[in-house]
Amino acid sequence: MDNTCLFCRIVAGEIPATVVHRTETTLAFRDIDPKAPTHVLVIPVEHYADVAVLAEANPAAAADVLATVAAVAEAEGLAGDGFRVIFNTGEHGGQEVFHVHAHVLGGAPLGPMLAGR
Ligand code: 5GP
Ligand code: ZN
What residues are in contact with ligand 1 under a 6 Å CB criterion? Predict the structure, then answer.
């Protein structure tokens, strides 16, 4: 655990979050500032900075994150109409929290993939 990492502190229970799904290796909780009717963050419980680091260091945990994304989409009723999964990565990707997380977004048509396109 990285004590300076917001999401590690959520895993540790030091910062409250609305948890919607939990496995041995992943945690899913609602984004504090939702950008869609449903906006859930899925993380590995172990700390990896971003999706590239995760995929290189622990492919099994990366697969677990994707399986939890699918489970959340199903449980949140998004599977039928569809949803979007985003891994913001690095500066150009707009990543703000450097503990890898999948944004699972849905509940309404989400519009163009990128603003202004
Ligand atoms: P990023 O920009 O790194 O891809 O996304 C970080 C996300 O974390 C943002 O969507 C932001 O709203 C969310 N976030 C930031 N702080 C907290 C928090 O304390 N709790 C929860 N649940 N989400 C947070
Ligand atoms: Zn962390």
Answer: 6, 15, 17, 29-33, 88, 94-97
Residue entry with tokens 């655990």 = 1
Q: Write out the two tokens for 101.
A: 């997380």
Per-residue pLDDT tens digits for 99-116:
999 999 999 999 999 987
Q: What is the pTM of this model?
A: 0.98
What digits encode the pLDDT tens for the residues 42-62? 999 999 999 999 999 999 999
CA–centroid distance, 68 to ligand 1, in Å, is 18
Sheet holding 26-30, edge to edge: 19-22, 26-30, 38-44, 102-106, 83-86
Question: In angstroms, rounded to a whole number, what is the distance separating the alpha carbons of residues 92 and 96?
Answer: 11
Are 112 and 42 contacting, i.e. CB atoms less than 8 angstroms apart? no
